[in-house]
Amino acid sequence: xxxxxxxxxxxxxxxxxxxxxxxxxxxxxxxxxxxxxxxxxxxxxxxxxxxxxxxxxxxxxxxxxxxxxxxxxxxxxxxxxxxxxxxxxxxxxxxxxxxxxxxxxxxxxxxxxxxxxxxxxxxxxxxxxxxxxxxxxxxxxxxxxxxxxxxxxxxxxxxxxxxxxxxx
Length: 168
Prior knowledge:
Layout: H1 2-7, E1 14-17, H2 20-28, E2 33-36, H3 43-48, E3 56-61, H4 66-75, E4 76-84, H5 97-102, E5 106-109, H6 117-125, E6 135-140, H7 144-152, E7 160-164
Parallel strand pairs: 1-2, 3-4, 4-5, 6-7
């Protein structure tokens, strides 16, 4: 997602997360900043200082957690957009409706880019996005059940898993 934002011309693209290994990958792929929110109890305030405490134009929530979505709502600027990209089926308790009114926030749900697969393939063919650093696990077809288990249960710090159809 970060690489696509940069390709679209976004400035000051960053990632907030809880795992240093993933934050390092974000840096390696061109993040302008990263922040470990587990290591900084005032992370929202400190990250917002990058914007002069105005907020970000767009906040993309990718973890699928309610606390992260609520942080995105707090960190987006007046007239900004929050994109819910992370997979979640939870109800959102504590959604600050006043912020949607007073800050005039737009919220968009995204299920992985419906209709954009041809463009994604084109970007991969042109080597404009790097996916290899995001693939943390590889499985032969004979271990497809294990691959699904690792992804479903988020085992072993998995980001993306690939199942190879040829076992050579």
